[in-house]
Amino acid sequence: MIECLKKEGVDIIFGYPGGTIMPFYDALYDEPEIKHILTRHEQGAAHAADGYARATGKVGVCVSTSGPGATNLVTGIATANMDSVPMVAFTGQVPTQLIGTDAFQEADITGITAPITKHNYLVNDVKKLAYTIKEAFYIASTGRPGVVVIDLPKDVLVNEAEFHYPKRISLMGYKLVKSGNISQVKMAAKEIMAAKRPVIISGGGVIMGDACEELDALVKKCNIPVTTTLMGKGSFDERSDFSLGMIGMHGTAYSNYAICEADLIISLGTKFSDRVTGKISEFAPHARLIHIDIDPAEIGKNVGVDIPIVGDVKETLKDLAELVTEKGHDEWLERIADWKAKHPLVSFNPDVLNPQFIINSIYEETGGDAIIVTEVGQNQMWAAQYFTYSKPRTFLSSGGLGTMGYGFPAAIGAKAAFPDRAVFDIAGDGSIQMNIQELATSVREDLDVNIIILNNSYLGMVRQWQELFYDKRYASTHLKGNPDFVKLAEAYGAKGRRVEEKKDFVPALKDALNSGSTYLLDCVIPCEENVYPMVAPGACINKMMGVGE
Amino acid sequence: MKHTLSVLVRDSPGVLAKIAGLFSRRGFNIESLAVGHTESEGISRMTIVASGGEHTLEQIKKQLNKLIDVIKVADLDPNKSVGRDMALIKVKIESPQKRSEVIQMVDVFRAKILDISETSLIVEITGRQDKVEAFIRLLEPLGIKEVVRTGKIALARGLKVVSLPKQTKK
Fold first, then answer.
1. pTM surpassing 0.90?
2. Quick one: CATH architecture of B82-153?
3. N- or C-end of chain A: fewer Cβ atoms within 10 A?
4. A55: distance to nearest CA of chain B, Å?
């Protein structure tokens, strides 16, 4: 099994040992080429492997034992799969003769993970092990990437077989698409040439499909403005005049206005989540829609499409860029520039230590050269809105599943992959506590991850909804009894500092960046600061609250 | 609107659960599902009758195709395919007169008697779904004790086949 992992180029795995997976750990003990990072909870291992995969583009690998070890991976598996992250998860299993007997630490993990994986296997014969691992890495990393689980009964791990690693595999019924159908692409080119108010929506698929350069080339040739989904952050340089920032529920006003006035939308590698479209029937009412996606099931799933193109986004964009000629949209771009000037993102508490200032300062201090990992909730949206992303794989966030507790372990995974880059976990005081035990991992592995807690003593996003839609009835969202996060960090051997005044933040941040150790900044922000703009769930995306004038 | 899907799958452990799970979690309705081995080793064919509009059907086919174990999905045109259901029906017999009534019905429907005792009969009927249902309905007043039915199985008419892609045939 270790030979297989080496053949797949695996250098780091994240995991947690236990009874049934012990034979694997025993073999790993003398293995110099593969580094194992011991997390303090299996969920942390799954998120760390996910963070590693999102930051590098390689397949992330995590390992757990059977039963509770495997079920603890489940949230991490679902998180990664929902965001199409390539990952292979190995789980121990009770010996084959005990399967089905409710043995100690037995759980039907292939049954449990079937709906949240791209594929899974229960290996019942050691002779099939090498082939299965090859197939798993292939499936996880090709097409629309996803998670593959390999369940390994203990006897299979102990038995021996002659090692033969297949060079190629053939899978009936698993066909990869390359470039989109050329006549469809020609039609798309025609639409682009005819459009007066085109907008590109760039999704996570553009990053996963390594198509950012191709996107940029098309934009420059045809002068088309680009909005990204949350998952598409980093697929297009937000410093560009063509960038509209993010679309949707907490998107920029100008992005949402542009969608509502556009006459053509070119959407790339995105699933049209409800957080993006708002009220479906009023989404982009004047636009024809071109949808390019590698997964045919995404096309026409949530919104009707005029020109569907099933294809690899990189190859298809290359073809498309050749078929269009240079074109300007001065009037349209002026209208957008006007919206940008009139409706910028604003903080409603500019004089105090506010989250917008914090995120923006991180951008300024790092010159934008950092990997930003987020938890879920207000912290995630502020991190998306106020850091200017210019490169792919620099914004890592649980978009689909929306998993609190994702950020810190994922930041550990990203930092393990890129020890020389600045890595931040942007957290809330709620979500950091969902995997705070990973402080031990970060300290022991000597990873200088920076944790920024935007501490408002609330589950902020839920509180915001309660304020707006539940008459300020703050049911179970006030986090009374939060620990002293700085002391907690210190107890684990990390450094920490609490920041209450706006003027103290930048010096503290500099300190964190230069510390060379895991560093936690507990930043006290106004309790009732909200994420704006905001589209109420189910409303049309041009109906936004909190738009700056 | 009902659709009959012919689905070729790899015969791997858990494949039935994966397909059934897909239907339930995506909110698709399955009317029936029949599964068995095919002419090729290691490959099974499922005949699935599902209901829903065009959009739902499109999603069903696409989502099925995404499963790694699914090799091929075909939507069989009712005019260009044949389909059959089968049912076994146990009827309680209280008198010789009732027995002859049942036997008459069996003759009319070209059903078969599989088992006969002093107090019961088991009959087998094969045919299109509406025929099987009509037969069960007519037997009902005579005292049905137990019914078991297969799901529909179907094949395209003529030489058209839903089979493995050529290059991957073993």
1. yes
2. 2-Layer Sandwich (3.30)
3. C
4. 26
